[in-house]
Amino acid sequence: MSSPKKRNNSVGKAGPRPGDPKKGGAGGKGTWGGLGDEAKSASYVDRNDPNYDSGDEAKSFVPRPLPAIVIFKNAVQPIIDEYFVSGDAEEVGRALKELNSPQFHQEFVKISVSKAMEKHDRERELVSHLLPSLYPNCLSYEKIAEGFSALLERLQDLKLDTPTAPELLSMFLARAVIDDVLPPSFLSPDTADEELAKDTLQKAWGLTRGKHAGSRLAHIWGPGGEQSVKRLKERILVLLEDYIVQQDLLAADRQVRDLNSPHFHYQVAKKAAQLCVESSDEKTNNYLSQLLAQFHKSGLISTDHMVAGFKIIADTISDIELDTPL
User: Fold this and answer.
1) Cβ atoms within 10 Å, residue 97
2) 242 contacts 252 by C-beta, under 8 angstroms
3) Closest C-alpha among 131, 134, 164, 133 to residue 148
4) Which DSSP string corresponds to 82-102?
5) Tens of pLDDT, residues 243-280
6) pTM, full prediction
7) What does the pLDDT look like over 69-108, one tens digit per residue?
8) Structural contact between residues 143 and 181, judged by C-beta atoms closer than 8 angstroms
9) Are 155 and 166 a contacting pair, CB within 8 Å?
10) What are the start-end ranges of the H helices in the chain?
11) Rounded to whole angstroms, how far apart are CA atoms 118 and 113?
12) Rounded CA gap, 203 and 173, in Å?
């Protein structure tokens, strides 16, 4: 008689049976799944479901943050609008610095010029005056050029809203060159691709040529104020010429301070350097070099303004040499 078989109570190594939960204790057939699994799977909203509530869907919507450049564009619009009312260029400079986004300053140039084109000569003069007022402390040479390049690229679109946009932009460009915030080489038609942009650059170049071009462009939007760029440049030339004759450092220092335009001090460095290039007199060059050194040492003219003034001369040296062969 055979002995009865012993019952095996141990668990074998057989695989999971159908319906058993998966590893982790969840997810088997007929189970609810693990805690939090409902968040891992994408939810589907059936708008035809009688229990559908549009409010629930709205609650789950999380808006994406705006790109930084869009935030900057939205921020500068009221700054420019306020400037058209107040005419306070220094306040614009403070507001731009508070935004702390120099990488987008070309957008400021583009927006301010395009808004001015839609308005009247008063606003156009304000913007033409604003650009040299903000250079170099707020706006760099490069960003001003980028802003005008962007305007040239979208000139066809600008023309839809402002039919005279090509003519107005040529005037803004010519004025910017005369005010030393764009190099004359920027007006070369070869730098543009579209025919309309080429024609605009060609017209701007023509505006900067000829006798008394500077005087005409200084008032291209109508009579300027006492502190117009042209007026300031004239006063700087006079004080430098007085210094060459008298070598009076204190008087020159006082005259620069009397300009009451610290944002414009780069023009002192620029004009002094230009006189040195144009002069063949060694004494004159030494006097002006000593004057600039003293202005820098005393803190009257900052390093940034010195560099900005010299950069203008470096970018326009070929034009100066045409007028004054070395």
Assistant:
1) 13
2) yes
3) 131
4) HHHHH--HHHHHHHHHHHT-G
5) 999 999 999 999 999 888 888 899 999 999 999 988 88
6) 0.70
7) 999 999 999 999 999 999 999 999 999 999 999 999 999 9
8) no
9) yes
10) 37-40, 54-59, 68-86, 89-99, 105-117, 121-134, 141-153, 155-161, 165-178, 195-207, 213-218, 229-246, 249-258, 266-278, 282-297, 303-323
11) 9
12) 9
Residue 223, CA distances (Å) to 122, 226, 227, 287 in order: 10, 10, 11, 35
Least Cα distance to 245 among 293, 296, 285, 284 occurs for 284
State the residue for tokens 């204190």: 250
Share of residues in the chain with pLDDT > 90 (%): 62
Rounded Cα gap, residues 316 and 323, in angstroms: 11
Taking alpha carbons only, the member of 196, 193, 186, 130 closest to residue 163 is: 196
**Which candidate, 229, 325, 230, 245, places its Cα nearest to that of 288?**
245
Alpha-carbon distance of 264 to 256, in angstroms, equals 10
